[in-house]
Design a protein that fits this description.
By secondary structure, this protein is α/β, with parallel strands linked by helices. It has two domains: about 260 residues, Aldehyde Dehydrogenase, Chain A, domain 1 (3-Layer(aba) Sandwich), CATH 3.40.605.10; about 180 residues, Aldehyde Dehydrogenase, Chain A, domain 2, CATH 3.40.309.10. The chain is about 40% helix and about 20% strand. It has a seven-stranded mixed beta sheet with strand order 16-19-20-15-14-22-23, sandwiched between helices. Strands 11-10-9-12-13-25 form a six-stranded mixed beta sheet, with helices on both faces. Helix 1 packs across helix 7, helix 2 packs antiparallel against helix 4 and helix 5 packs across helix 15. It starts with 8 loop residues before the first strand and ends in a 7-residue tail after the last strand. The N terminus is likely disordered. The protein binds nicotinamide-adenine-dinucleotide. Nicotinamide-adenine-dinucleotide binds next to helix 7 and helix 8.
């Protein structure tokens, strides 16, 4: 386990200097304290120690942020400038994100325990890519011409939906921030972002970069805080849409709050319990690597994690043996170490929740093939864990653990694989490993999930819409579908010629 020494070499790798610049709320283009003066602790999951105190926004702060966003929407330049101009400013924002990759990767590592190397090489470059994708779409927003029946003709206008509240989780602080703000900015919306209380730091840094890029004051506001601030966003009368990513339980509360306030539009990206189906014709070594990657990446704190692995009976025994061997090579340790596969769980609560599920799995009668314990002498590290002898109705199969815990099961036929894959309340993602095109086609059409990865996993792309079925939510992030969710369609109808009855 690596040392937390700041700015020094630690056991053969360097820990960069940690410099936290922004800890206040960002409202109307300025960093300000919470009106109450309250702050909350943010801890480094590598050690459990406090690294900063961050302003704790409450209802009054959300009111101020919404007032700024409302003013910017109703009277400000952002929704009124051309899409081309918005796109140019977003491109500049993306360039600034690229120039500060290392600074923000550090923040996501000390806030969420994310691998520093992956932050720098994948998460942050993908976020600036996404921003550029929507920057390029900003001047291509258009409606349709409608021929209509009778003596009428019409057209539709696509208009920004208004003030948006984005409520985001902690597992991908950068990715979630840009999933939400990029299409909303392109559409011409103004917004209030409520980051998760576990990982508020990078969102504040990005707000600072947005201002530098020229995004007008009031367009992008960030209110850090916990459920109180989130609930104030969900129930606000002056927010036109809430875009939420987080747990299914809180998603339900957000939808209730929207229904009880101003019936604002809601989109929900929620939890998952995604299946990975491995068929007899698969290359077993490749399938083992993919299964390991699908669940242990980001210490299993991924909504689409392949937590249920179903292997066809012909290769099951071989798969189990190889999976046990491969897990030994999946290293756990300091996320600043570039040779490590897995860092710490985000916080003590999540660490304890995962360990509790491991105990539940044992009590339910499943067998621990590998792992099953916490590791390290400090921080929130857990061994990559694989359960065998797992039954379909066990809690570890039905409930989202959000940790490095794989349930390994066997199936005989394609029909059985499809039935098992669909046998949870969730429907976020699924993976298939086979060389057989007929199996691929049949299974991908039969699984009720928002994305199906064939012979790959986490195949995300800016142009590929992503979002759930069933209790994994509704509404898409990414792709042009996400742009559409921040636009209203308005119909304008005119007579073709003067008609006596019009
Ligand atoms: P969470 O639901 O506890 O919190 C999410 C956000 O909601 C946080 O910002 C939190 O402060 C806020 N919040 C809490 N109570 C609220 C309330 N009453 N009203 C409004 N907002 C409130 O989720 P989490 O623990 O931060 O994240 C993990 C969950 O997120 C997992 O279930 C995971 O599957 C899900 N997730 C889904 C996706 C997806 O795209 N489908 C992506 C990432 C994470």
């Amino acid at each position: 386990m690596g040392s937390e020494t700041n700015g020094k070499m630690a056991e053969g790798f360097e820990i960069p200097e940690i410099n936290i610049k922004f800890t206040q709320l960002f409202i109307n283009g300025h960093f300000v304290d919470a009106l109450s003066g309250k702050t909350f602790e943010t801890r480094d999951p590598r050690t459990g120690e406090v690294v900063a105190r961050v302003a704790e926004g409450g209802k009054d702060d959300v009111n101020l942020a919404v007032k700024a966003a409302r003013e910017a929407f109703d009277h400000g330049p952002w929704p009124r400038m051309s899409g081309y101009e918005r796109g140019r400013i977003m491109m500049k924002f993306a360039d600034l994100v690229d120039q500060h990759t290392e600074d923000v990767a550090i923040l996501d590592t000390i806030n969420a325990g994310k691998l520093f190397k992956i932050g720098k090489l994948v998460d942050i470059p993908s976020a600036s890519h996404l921003l550029r994708y929507y920057a390029g779409a900003a001047d291509k927003i258009h409606g349709e011409t409608l021929k209509l029946s009778r003596e009428l003709q019409g057209y539709t206008l696509k208009e920004p939906i208004g003030v948006v509240g984005h409520i985001i989780p902690w597992n991908y602080p950068t990715t979630m921030f840009f999933f939400k703000i990029s299409p909303a900015l392109a559409a011409g919306c103004t917004m209030v972002v409520k980051p998760a209380e576990q990982s508020p730091l990078s969102a504040l840094y990005y707000a600072h970069l947005a201002k530098q890029a020229g995004i007008p004051d009031g367009v992008l506001n960030v209110v850090t805080g916990g459920p109180t601030a989130g609930a104030a966003v969900a129930s606000h009368m002056d927010i036109d849409k809430v875009s939420f990513t987080g747990s299914t339980e809180v998603g339900r509360l957000v939808m209730e709050a929207a229904a009880k306030s101003n019936l604002k539009s809601v989109s929900l990206e929620l939890g998952g319990k995604s299946p990975l189906l491995i068929f007899d014709d698969a290359d077993v070594d490749m399938a083992v690597n993919l299964a390991q990657f699908a669940i242990f990446t980001n210490k299993g704190e991924i909504c689409v994690a392949g937590s249920r692995v179903y292997v066809q009976e012909g290769i099951y025994d071989q798969f189990v043996k190889k999976a046990a061997e491969a897990a030994k090579n999946w290293s756990v340790g300091d996320p600043f170490n570039p040779n490590i596969h897995q860092g710490p769980q985000v916080d003590k609560a999540q660490f304890e929740k995962v360990l509790k599920y491991i105990e539940i799995g044992k009590k339910e009668g499943a067998t621990v093939l590998t792992g099953g314990n916490a590791c390290g002498d400090k921080g929130y590290y857990i061994e990559p864990t694989i359960f065998t002898d797992v039954k379909d109705d066990m809690k570890i199969v039905q409930e989202e653990i959000f940790g490095p815990v794989m349930s390994l099961m066997k199936f005989k036929t394609i029909e059985e694989a499809i039935e098992k894959a669909n046998n949870t309340k969730y429907g976020l993602a699924a993976g298939i490993v086979t060389k057989d095109l007929n199996i691929t086609n049949r299974v991908s059409r039969s699984i009720r999930a928002g994305v199906i990865w064939v012979n790959c996993y986490f195949g995300f792309d800016a142009d590929c819409p992503f979002g759930g079925f069933k209790m994994s939510g509704f509404g898409k992030d990414m792709g042009l579908d996400a742009l559409d969710k921040y636009l209203h369609s308005k119909s304008v109808v005119t007579p073709i010629y003067n008609s006596p009855w019009l």
